[in-house]
Amino acid sequence: MSDIHGKVALITGASSGIGAALAEEFARRGADVVLVARREGRLEAVADAVRAKGRRAVAVTGDVTRDGDLERVVAAGLEELGRIDFVVANAGFGVSGPHQKLTLEDFRRQFETNVYGVLRTLYASRDALLASRGCLAIIGSVAGCVPLAGSAPYSMSKAAVHSLAGCIRYELAPKGVGVTLVVPGFVDSQIRQVNNRGELRPHASDPVPVWLRMRVSVAARKIVGAMIRRRPVRVLTFHGRVVVFIQRHAPWLVRAIVRTFGVRDSHQGR
Fold it and tell me: Tens digits of per-residue pLDDT, 25-81?
């Protein structure tokens, strides 16, 4: 519990789901947090939960798709907490549907959040991480490893950040900064209730059965543990590990399953 006591974590997309659970997990382990998301009320509620655990929280409303927002968040965190040791590029959503029903604007919107949002987070926090010799986590997806029909924008965006994580890991390692790629499978978050425009539909049903979804608290514990140990890649769920393994070693089997059962996208959980 004291392994990161007094350190500071910055989390994007912190108002719900994995991001909110990460805030509480970092606080449980003794860290203070800097939180950013678009929904001010939800963000303040997460900050209050962190403070209830006796840790400090800086909550700043912002959008990873806007230039300058992440720099403002980092500046606020450094001013109030003095350092940043962990950064989690968690903000993201999924655009789905067959390509013929999507437009270039749908792909741009997907990349603006899932790819350029990660890059904005990296560039804004890089100096702070270099100063602390900290660790950056990028939230990828099984969809970045296993493309399926109806998931082109999302799968493309996650494949892009998988490659980004691998590239910058080599670049930052000599400077003492770790990079962890997190590859969730189905996690019990709101991502499958968000439409193609990034708008939450709170009453939409989740197509993934409960028994297949990992609790966000469990996911957060595994992510923080992977960052502390500086693991290069952490695939969270059992089914995620199985699917990634099959795709890597027997891609013909994945193709056969898709052809036989018509497997389609469900935003892949993350």
Answer: 999 999 999 999 999 999 999 999 999 999 999 999 999 999 999 999 999 999 999
Pick the closest to residue 110 from 156, 53, 167 (CA basis): 156
- Nearby residues of 127 by Cβ (< 8 Å), 6 or more positions away: none
Helix axes 104-114, 116-132, angle to 10 degrees: 10
pTM exceeds 0.90 for this model: no
* Residue 173 backbone phi and psi in degrees, to 5: -55, -45
For the chain, the domains span 8-261
- Over residues 159-188, the pLDDT tens digits come to 999 999 999 999 999 999 999 999 997 777
CA 100 – CA 255 distance, rounded (Å): 21
Is 154 in the active site? yes
Question: Which CATH code fits 8-261?
Answer: 3.40.50.720
246 CB-side CA count, 13 A: 15
Residue identified by tokens 């500086």 is 230
